[in-house]
Amino acid sequence: MKQRSYFVTTAMFFGYAFLYVPIAVLVIYSFNDSSIPTVWNGFSLRWYSALFENEQIINAALLSLKIALISATLATFLGTLAGLALTQTNTFKGRLLFTGLIAAPLVMPEVITGLSLLLVFISSEQLIGWPDSRGTLTIIIAHITFSMAFVAIIIQSRLATLDKSLIEAATDLGAHPFRVTLDITLPLIAPAMLAAWLLAFTLSLDDLVIASFVSGPGSSTLPMVIFSKVRLGVTPDVNALATIIITIVGLGVVISGWVMYRQEQRTIRRVQQP
Amino acid sequence: MSFIQIENISKKFDGVTVVDNISQDINQGELFAILGGSGSGKTTLLRMLAGFERPSSGRILLNGKDMTDLPPYQRPVNMMFQSYAVFPHMSVAKNVGYGLVKENIKKPEIDHRVEEILALVQLSSFSNRKPNQLSGGQLQRVALARALIKKPKVLLLDEPLAALDKKLREQTQFELMNIQHELGITFILVTHDQEEAMTLASRIAVMNEGKFIQTGTPTEIYEYPSNRFVADFVGSINLFEGIVATNDSNATQVKTDALGLLAASPDARVNVGETLWVAIRPEKISLSKKTISSTDINSVKGAVWDLGYYGNHCVYRIKTDNGTYLQVTTQNQSRATGLDINWKDEVHLSWDPACCMVLRE
Ligand SMILES: Nc1ncnc2c1ncn2[C@@H]1O[C@H](COP(=O)(O)OP(=O)(O)OP(=O)(O)O)[C@@H](O)[C@H]1O
Ligand SMILES: [Mg+2]
After folding, report:
1. pTM of the model
2. Which of A184, A269, B205, B264 has the lowest tally of Cβ within 10 angstroms?
3. Mean pLDDT, residues A121-145 taken together
4. Hey, is the C-beta of A264 within 8 angstroms of any chain B C-beta?
5. Element (H, E) at B225
6. Complex-level ipTM
7. Which residues does B269 contact at the CB level (< 8 Å), separation at least 6?
C-alpha cells in the first residue's frame, strides 16, 4: 500500500473533526449534571428523565413518529409504483422526461416545496373544502410528496440492474404480467424497498422547513418544538433529545446503507457466476 | 399441414431488418436447429416464436392456429434462456414448479411432477437448494426442467449449452437428445456452434443476415451445401474459383487458376462458361508420400507447410508448387510416436471427383 502523505491525513482529521466534534459535544453534554449547558458538572441522566416528563416533547415525538411511519409507508408504496412505471416506459425520450420530472423535487429548495404545498392546500380548501384545516394530515401529504421522489429513484435504479430475462422467464411460464410483478419483481427489489422506506422515514423525522409551512395549530412535530425551544435559549434537555434523535436517524441510515450494500454484493456475486 | 408454420416472418428494429422474410415448416417431435453467426437474427426469431417480440410482418401458426398475436403467457411454448434466468429468490423446487402454480394445479400433484422432472435432469437431491448454491451446469438443468415441466408443445432453446465446458456440453447434448426423445416435445434450438447443431438436430437451418440460406438434415448441409456461404460456414472446406469448361453427365470440369482443371460430381444446373467455386472437404483428400493416383485430374503435388496434431486426427496445410494452400485432415489410425507425414515432406494429394462439388456464391 502507498504511504498516505501527512497533508492528506491532517486534512482528513480536521475534516472529520469539523463534522463530528459538534455532535460529540452535544452528546456528551446531554449527560451533564449541570443546568448550565456549557459547564461540565459530572455525569447524570437527569435531562433524559426530565425529557420523559415533558409532555409537550413526548407528544411532539409521538406525532413525528406517527407522521414518519405513515408517510414513509405510503411514499414507499407510491414511489415503488412510480419506479415500476418508469422502467416500463418504452421510449427513451419518455423515460428521460419522466425521470427528470420525478428527480426535480430532490434538488428543489425545501422552502419552495413547503410554500408551494401550502398554496395547494389553501386553494384546495377554498375550492373543494378539503383538507379543511392544516395539521397532521397535511404534513403527512407533504412528506409523502417529497420523499416519494427519493423512493422512486432508489427503486428505479434497482430495477435497472434487474435481469430482464427473469421477468420474461416468468411470463413465458404462464404468469400474467401482474403476477410476475408480485412473484418476481417485488421480492427481488424488496431490500431496495426497505432501504427506501428507511430513508423516507428519516427524511420525514428530520424535516423542519416543509412541516413548518404546512402544519397547523396543535400539530407541532419534534423538530418544530426543538427549534422553538432553542430560540428561547439552549436547555440541556434539548441535548438529550437531540442525542436520541441522532441515535434513531443514525441507525436508520446505517441499516439502509447496510441493506443496499448487501444487495450490491449479492448482485456482484451473481454477475461473477457463469 | 405442418406442426409449426412460420410464414413470411420479418422483424425490423428502427428500420433495420433483422429477420428477413423467413418461411419454414417444422414438424412435430423434431429437433430443429437454427445455426448462424453472431448477429444473424437467431435470438430475434426465437423471441418472436416465444412471443417476446412482435413480428413486423408475417404469421406464426401452431397446429394450424395463428398465435402471432398471443402474449407469451398464453402460448403453449416454453423457452430456455441463454442466461438460464433461474429465479434467485426461489429454491430449485419452487423454480421448477413455478409454471404449474400458474396453471392452478393442486399442490400434491405439483410436488409429484416436480420430483419427476428433477429426477429426469438428475437434480433430485438438490430440490431445496437456492440457485446461488448451484454450479453452472446444475443451473442450466434447473432451467431446462423448469421449461419442460409444463409439457409444452414446443421448447425453444437459446444457445443452451454455451456456458458449459466441452465435456459437460457433450454429456448434456446426449441428455437433451434423450429427454427430447422421451417426451416427444418439438425442440427448436438456436446455436452458433455447428458441431452442436450437427449432433443434436434432425434438421438444421443455416441463417445469415436474417435469412435462412439452407435448410436440411445435417448430412445434407454438410455434404450438399447449397452455396458457398453454407459450405464455408459449416465445417472446413477448400474452395477454388474457376470457370466451367465442360459439363456432362459424367463430371463437371472447372478450369481453376489455382489448380488447373478440376473434376467435380456432375451438376446439371451449371452452365459452361459460368464462374463458380469448386469445393472439397479436407477429409475427402488422400495424402501420400508416393504417387497414388493414376490420372492427372484432381491430383496435386505439394509440401507440408503446417501441421496440427489433435490426437485422433491431424490437420495438414499443404502448399502446392504454385503457392496454393489446401487443408487436409487424416485419421490417426495407427499408434506411433512419430507421424508418417511430417513438416516439409513432399506429398501427393488426390481426391475422387464424386466428393468434389461446384458451388455458386
Ligand atoms: N431490441 C433490439 N433493438 C434494436 N436492435 C436489436 C434488438 N435486438 C436485437 N437487435 C439487433 O438485431 C440483430 C440480431 O440480433 P440477434 O440477437 O437476433 O442476433 P443473434 O443471431 O442471436 O446473435 P448472437 O449469436 O450474437 O446471439 C443484431 O444486430 C442486434 O443488434
Ligand atoms: Mg443470440
Report:
1. 0.83
2. A269
3. 91
4. no
5. none
6. 0.83
7. none
